[in-house]
Automatic annotation (TrEMBL):
PIN domain span: 83-205
Recorded GO CC terms: cytoplasmic exosome (RNase complex); nuclear exosome (RNase complex); nucleolus
Any one GO biological process: nonfunctional rRNA decay
Residue ranges annotated for the RNB domain, each copy included: 529-862
Segments of skewed composition (Acidic residues): 337-350
UniProt cross-references to PROSITE patterns, sorted A to Z: RIBONUCLEASE_II (PS01175)
Domain of life assignment: Eukaryota
Gene3D superfamilies, alphabetized: 2.40.50.690, 2.40.50.700, 5'-nuclease, Nucleic acid-binding proteins
Record family assignment: Belongs to the RNR ribonuclease family.
GO terms assigned for molecular function: 3'-5'-RNA exonuclease activity; RNA endonuclease activity; tRNA binding
Subcellular location(s) of the protein: Cytoplasm; Nucleus, Nucleolus
UniProt-recorded name of the protein: Ribosomal RNA-processing protein 44
Pfam families, sorted: OB_Dis3, PIN_4, RNB, Rrp44_CSD1, Rrp44_S1
């Protein structure tokens, strides 16, 4: 609790100091902390039209007043004179899309009070507003009102912090208007008015009484000629004249969230639990929350229990009584089927006869009703029953709301709506099927039909069946390459805008002509490098790779051992801490690889030129050099900054052909043969230690060289040279992890992979036991690896690969972390069976590797480590951002492949082999290895739904097919399916549709 002392002391230099008294409680003991808060009168107002503040600061050598951002001739509108805008917190939080994209927000002042509130409530929006402030284009400025003696206000004892902040913003507006009226250069410029933009009616009324010109966002938009277009972008507020979202005749009421005090108390005494909610992709009314201290995930069933939670929200849940614990649903339930008749103008409109409907079978409708009503209590005698503790959402800690991509649902509109330009309500179906439809209001219904659009969510009122949002912008026609690519980048939060001038200014001035200096003694740091240009170094990468991170060499030593070197691009020579280039790399955190393009973490000049270990040119590198014996045992390891000259850049296939060519006996080729033999031994050591050999259905899409259209899909083939590179990269990462941890025990950047909970494999083991009489052991990674090796079906060579794919999905995700966050036993990487691990070998495309390079450089005494990489809190934030960006990059890459596979199959219908991997009571899921796709086949397309019998214990579904012949399919069955590309009306994405043959 903070108590402010309004007494002031004046210093001779014009500073005023006041006191803030904090009462801090720790372990029941209260202590008083007094902090001084300095106020001053010489903070410039930032206006170029102010004669007084121009005298406070001196111009730069070129005569520019760099601190004066606001134009001397700001915007003037009919009915509103030249003016500056002052934004309040909620305007920024809710209308950031409008502020960024529209052409009406110029000469904007953001009080420091507002900026701090935004930072506390939404850091992503804070970074977006800071980007606008740094940009010269829109003239945004921050005024530090909390340090200005005429703007600072004290908090009254009976006043909430929110009320104090509102008063501080109004105080600034009053001072700013008076200041401009007094000191503006009236001989050259028209008077400038201060306009306070605020959507809180009470705050606006107080502002008007205090003589401040205050407008709501809706009122301000009305001054512009294109107001009708702009109003689509306005978030929905209760005091907005056109907002009738909450005026439904039939209201649905969700449970109230618990108060903050009740949530905090419940979390403290362990009656409530916190976690991330994951909504099932097959049942939109079912979710799970994993809680670290609980052995089983918590099951959330039903609309009321989910209580307006979005997939990915951080929620607080309350455990239900044990007699209400249930098992996950065995039924596919899709939002667009269950809620087919909902009307965007009314939350409860099953009786709306004008709406288009989606026809569903009577059997499916009965199943839906049955599933919604039944208790789902597990039969204790059923071996396949998995009882989970159930819970309900009682609070939202952090929303996973972001810009969402979708399209207007044609089922939610009346064709007559397209004939007028009046404001109409409609549903937007999002690309992610686990998310609910969002209701928006728009005047552009006609032009937005058939387009990919971006929306933002404003709220989800307690009495609304659906969340409410607003239109942001259109991406283009559905299925166009440009629109679909931008959609998936937005959907997964990938930063794809061009690098800013500030970032590009950090690059070497010589550009592409930069070269390694000839005189290595000219620079103290370069002098420390080891010259390895005599080593026969080469790189081995995928075909067409231009951002070459790594290269290798091997040579026989006089003592009979091998010198093996892994040489990594020295990115940190060019990317220095605390620069705009470093900040951009840290924010992006990873490069993103799509089928048709690459979104770089670092500018092209670095990634594909100056840092890339291209052949035949000198390059700076960071080298890890081992002395290995013939059995690949490490005798010694050395770390050094170096200079190399790669002899050749091979693709995996080229390197394999060269190694296999017995007639080729040159020294470089023999070095690669030695690397291959040593890598085989290294891999065997890992497997013997319990390393897992898992799998995923990876495919490659080939593009036509002339048209760039997708032409065919093939399963990726792995060669021995793939494993060669992988083994030495793993060895380098392990060695570097040990070195940086030995020097930085609290802040070393590492990567861990936790033991999978046994419950993750429960269902898979039940399926294996029933269908194959097999079992996966989970005592440790070695037991798991051995049991996977033993799960072989002599009649089906692919079965073992299929099982490894399914096992991969039961594993936890690996994550980046800093060493001070866990005890040493928790550092281990379960999948690799090593006690410590990091990423060091790809700094061009991963920011974790950049940090590891800096820490290794400090560990070997090459250069000192910046304080940011020695600060535990800052490093923890860096690791969290890298984890998020890395995960999203993987999803974006898969989504790109999925899109192009759909395009390839558009005109290539074929019969393929597939495997049943999931069984539901009203459908099955089949994986087709050739295309790497899996798809749901609903019961109604399998045959007669009325004839279906679901055997949950044996994971079987029986039915009569279209020829009235009884058929039974079970999990792990090998089936033949007709594969064709269809347009999914729900997501407007082209997808693989499978028909059982």
């Amino acid at each position: 609790m903070a108590i402010e002392n309004p007494s002031k002391r004046l210093f001779t230099n014009g500073l005023v100091v006041t006191q803030k008294v904090f009462v801090r409680s720790r372990n029941g003991d209260a202590s008083k902390v007094v902090r001084e808060h300095y106020l001053r009168d010489d903070i410039p107002c930032l206006s170029k039209g102010c004669t007084y503040c121009q005298n406070i600061l001196k111009p730069d050598p070129e005569g520019n007043f760099v601190h004066f951002t606001l134009s001397a001739t700001p915007l003037s509108l009919e009915g509103l004179a030249h003016h500056y805008l002052v934004l309040d917190t909620n305007i920024i939080l809710h209308a950031i899309d409008l502020i960024e994209s529209s052409s009406i927000f110029f000469d904007v002042v953001i009080p420091q009070t507002v900026l701090e509130e935004v930072r506390n409530r939404s850091f992503p929006i804070y970074t977006r507003i800071r980007s606008l402030v740094r940009s010269d284009e829109k003239r945004f400025a921050v005024f530090h009102n909390d340090f200005h003696q005429d703007c600072y206000v004290y908090r009254n004892p009976s006043e909430s912090m929110n009320d104090r902040n509102d008063r501080a913003i109004r105080q600034f507006c009053q001072w700013f208007q008076l200041h401009l009226s007094t000191y503006q250069d009236k001989d050259h410029y028209s008077p400038i008015q201060v306009v306070f933009l605020c959507n809180d009616r009470d705050s606006r009324e107080k502002a008007k009484k205090e003589g401040i010109l205050s407008k709501s966002l809706f009122e301000y938009i009305d001054y512009f000629p294109n107001a009708n277009d702009l109003k689509d972008l306005i978030p929905n507020y209760d005091d907005e004249p056109s907002n009738d979202f909450s005026k439904n005749k039939h209201q649905i009421t969700y449970p109230e969230y618990y108060s903050t005090a009740k949530l905090m108390g419940g979390l403290k005494n362990a009656t409530l639990y916190q976690g991330i909610v994951n909504v099932s992709p097959y049942n939109f009314l079912e979710g799970q929350v994993s809680v670290p201290n609980l052995s089983k995930p918590l099951l959330i069933l039903g609309r009321e229990s989910l209580n307006r939670a979005f997939n990915g929200d951080q929620v607080v849940v309350e455990l239900l009584p044990k007699e209400k614990w249930k098992k996950p649903s065995s039924l596919i339930m899709e939002d667009d089927v269950v809620n087919a008749n909902d009307n965007a103008d009314d939350d409860d409109s099953e009786d709306n006869k004008n709406n288009k409907t989606i026809s569903i079978s009577e059997t499916e409708r009965k199943l839906l009703i049955y599933e919604a009503l039944k208790t789902q209590n597990a039969d204790p005698n059923s071996e396949s029953s998995v009882i989970l503790p159930t819970a309900k959402v009682v609070g939202i800690v952090k929303r996973n709301w972001r810009p969402f991509v979708g399209q207007i649902s044609s089922h939610s509109i009346d064709l007559n709506d397209l004939k007028s330009n009046s404001t109409k309500s409609c549903f937007v179906a999002l690309m992610d099927k686990s998310l609910p439809k969002v209701r928006i209001r728009t005047r552009r219904m006609k032009e937005l039909i058939g387009k990919r659009i971006v929306i933002s969510i404003d709220s989800w009122p307690i009495n609304s069946k659906y969340p409410q949002g607003h239109f942001v912008r259109s991406l283009g026609e559905i299925e166009s390459v440009e629109a679909e690519t931008e959609a998936l980048l937005l959907e997964y939060g990938v930063e794809y805008k061009p690098f800013s001038k500030n970032v590009l200014d950090c690059l070497p001035k010589e550009g592409h002509s930069w070269k390694v200096p000839q005189d290595l003694n000219a620079d103290e740091l370069i002098k420390k490098r080891k010259d390895l240009r005599d080593r026969l170094v080469c790189s081995i990468d995928p075909p067409g790779c231009v951002d070459i991170d790594d290269a290798l060499h091997a040579r026989r030593l006089p003592n009979g051992n091998w010198e093996v070197g892994v040489h990594i691009a020295d990115v940190t020579h060019f990317v220095k801490p605390n620069t705009p280039l470093d900040a951009e790399g840290a924010s992006r955190a990873t490069s993103v690889y799509l089928v048709d393009k690459r979104i770089d973490m670092l500018p092209l000049l670095l990634g594909t030129d100056l840092c890339s270990l291209k052949p035949y040119v000198d390059r700076f590198s960071f080298s890890v050099i081992w002395e290995l014996d013939d059995d690949a045992n490490i005798i010694n390891v050395d770390y050094t900054k170096s200079i190399i000259k790669s002899r050749e850049a091979f693709s995996y296939e080229q390197a394999q052909l060269r190694i296999d060519d017995k007639n080729n006996q040159d020294e470089l080729t023999n070095g690669m043969r030695a690397l291959l033999q040593l890598s085989i031994k290294l891999k065997q050591k890992r497997l013997d230690a319990g390393a897992l050999n898992l799998a995923s259905p990876e495919v490659k899409v080939h593009m036509d060289s002339e048209t760039y259209d997708p032409s065919e899909v093939e399963v990726k083939k792995l060669l021995a040279t793939n494993s060669l590179v992988e083994e030495f990269m793993l060895l380098a990462n392990i060695s570097v992890a040990r070195k940086i941890y030995s020097s930085f025990e609290q802040t070393a950047m590492l990567r861990r992979h936790g033991d999978p909970p046994a419950t993750n494999f429960t269902l898979l083991n039940q399926m294996l036991k029933v269908r194959k009489n097999m079992h996966i052991s989970l005592e440790n990674s070695k037991a798991l690896a051995d049991s996977l090796d033993n799960c072989v079906d002599p009649k089906d060579p692919y079965f073992n690969t299929l099982l490894r794919i399914m096992s991969t999905r039961c594993m936890l995700a690996a994550e980046y972390f800093i060493s001070g966050s866990f005890s040493y036993p928790e550092f281990k990487h379960y999948g690799l069976a090593v006690d410590i691990y990091t990423h060091f070998t790809s700094p061009i495309r991963r920011y974790c590797d950049v940090v590891a390079h800096r820490q290794l450089a400090a560990a070997i005494g090459y250069e000192s480590l910046d304080i940011i990489h020695r600060d535990k809190n800052k490093m923890d934030l860096i690791a969290k951002n890298i984890n998020k960006r890395h995960r999203n990059a993987q999803f974006a890459g898969r989504a790109s492949i999925e899109y192009y596979v759909g395009q390839v199959m558009k005109n290539n219908e074929s019969s393929e082999e597939g495997y049943v991997i999931k069984i539901f009571s009203n459908g099955i899921v089949v994986l087709v290895p050739k295309f790497g796709v899996e798809s749901l086949i609903k019961l109604e397309s399998l045959g007669d739904p009325n004839s279906a019998v679901f055997d949950e214990d044996n994971f079987e579904l029986s039915f009569k097919n279209k020829k009235n012949v009884k058929r039974t399919v079970a999990v792990f069955d090998r089936v033949i399916v007709q594969v064709k590309s269809v347009f999914d009306e729900r997501t407007s994405k082209r997808k693989a549709e499978l028909v059982l043959v």
